[in-house]
Design brief:
Length: 418
């Protein structure tokens, strides 16, 4: 495997970095998150028109660029550096690959060209409040319990009985860009216990009126650059994604989750690297006792440790871009590096780093919100270890109650001896 970036990938990075440096500084970010959509719509159209970001990893026959996960990781890293508020993550990383994987030819032809052109934004709405679980990053998707599991809660789907349509009922609490996306991909449970399965459904919201039975409410988010919404479905009309309602969508969600984890890891690395660069610049200028605080050995040691963390996370993210199977572990390392780096950035900035106006708090909030939405780190690592078979039979921690059952199986003399 050649891990070096191509000239085309380097050009994508350079062009995007220059554009975001001009149009997505800290003040621009604060202005963008205060808009109705939560991002700069004009900048998004420019990114779609000039760079083709929404369709970067889409097939060319549907208007995409035809690139792969490596190019998407490069773009996400630069977006993370600028904390770019945009539909890129929800549309290009989460929703579009699922349409490609499960959609019929008619659905792909109808939806993907609009996505690639930046005219149609989309997002994935999953019940349970855990995107990481729904993408198979922190748990097993078998059984669909995270989507309702045939019980109350989650989102339930039933045939409408009018020629192949479906009706959805339930809610999803933390949907990225759910208040503004023109297309919702809703994961819903159907079939009850006898034929239990999880399917994906399309709910169009880009028409002249809101579909009946759909209520979208933007929520107050810890990280304003990651707008979240509550989606309530009250017997809302929907279209099945794909042609067969007997095929569970869990496998496609897990495959999309591995690719998304690699892109998200790259984004977290970009944010961590930017926070570290800003901190290094600050300690080189701020003086204490007549000298720059960056000249003190203790500060140098802390910055050196952060540099090693960020570089290790970057290596893991780049490897995951070439091998998505490593996406979960790469995401865990990147989220941990981002959390530690941003916390140290706030400390090393001193009192100013705690103020609302300083950009350091934007990066710190991104770190905290990402781990709440996509982690936690220890669960990402645990699930990756389980999938790799690191803990075979008898090698893990004993099941709760094992000691008690063992004592119950002993004879009286044995119990006294113990």
């Amino acid at each position: 495997m050649d891990a070096a970036f191509t000239a085309e990938q380097d050009e994508i990075r350079r062009t995007l970095r220059e554009l975001l440096a001009r149009h997505s500084g800290p003040d621009d970010v604060r202005s963008a998150v205060g808009t109705r959509d939560g991002y700069d719509a004009e900048l998004w159209r420019r990114l779609a028109r000039d760079l083709g970001l929404p369709g970067l990893a889409l097939p060319q026959e549907y208007g995409g660029v035809g690139c792969g996960p490596a190019e998407l990781a490069v773009v996400c890293e630069e977006a993370g550096r600028a904390l770019l508020p945009s539909p890129l993550l929800a549309t290009a990383v989460l929703a579009a690959p699922l349409i490609v994987a499960l959609g019929t030819d008619e659905q792909r032809t109808a939806l993907l060209p609009g996505v690639a052109a930046g005219e149609l934004t989309a997002t994935l709405a999953v019940p349970g409040g855990s995107l990481a679980t729904a993408l198979g990053l922190t748990g097993d998707l078998t059984g669909g319990s995270w989507a309702g599991g045939g019980r109350a809660g989650g989102v339930q789907a039933r045939p409408s009985g009018d020629g192949g349509g479906w009706r959805l009922y339930g809610e999803a609490d933390q949907v990225l860009d759910g208040h503004s996306a023109g297309l919702l991909l809703v994961a819903a449970h159907t079939g009850g216990f006898p034929r239990s399965r999880t399917l994906l459904f399309l709910v169009r919201t880009d028409g002249p009126r809101t579909p009946a039975g759909l209520v979208r409410t933007r929520r107050t988010a810890l990280d304003e650059t990651r707008p979240l919404a509550r989606i309530q479905l009250r017997d809302a009309e929907a279209e099945l994604l794909g042609a067969d309602d007997t095929v569970d969508a869990s496998a496609a969600l897990a495959a999309a989750g591995r690719t998304a984890a690699a892109a998200l890891a790259a984004e977290a690395v970009g944010a961590a690297a930017s926070a570290l660069e800003r901190t290094v610049a600050h300690v080189g200028e701020r003086e204490q006792f007549g000298r720059a605080i960056g000249s003190f050995q203790a500060v140098k040691h802390r910055l050196a440790d952060l540099y090693v963390r960020v570089q290790a996370a970057r290596s893991a993210a780049y490897y995951a871009a070439w091998d998505p199977e490593a996406g979960g572990l790469a995401l865990a390392q990147a989220l941990e590096a981002l959390r530690v780096t941003t916390a140290e950035a706030v400390q090393l900035h001193g009192g100013i780093g705690f103020t609302w106006e300083h950009e350091a708090h934007l990066y710190f909030k991104r770190a905290a919100a990402d781990e709440l939405l996509l982690g936690p780190v220890h669960r990402l690592r645990d699930h990756a270890a389980q999938r790799a078979g690191l803990f075979g039979p008898g090698q893990g921690a004993p099941e709760r109650g094992t000691a008690e059952r063992g004592r119950a199986e002993q004879g009286p003399a044995e119990r006294v001896a113990v």
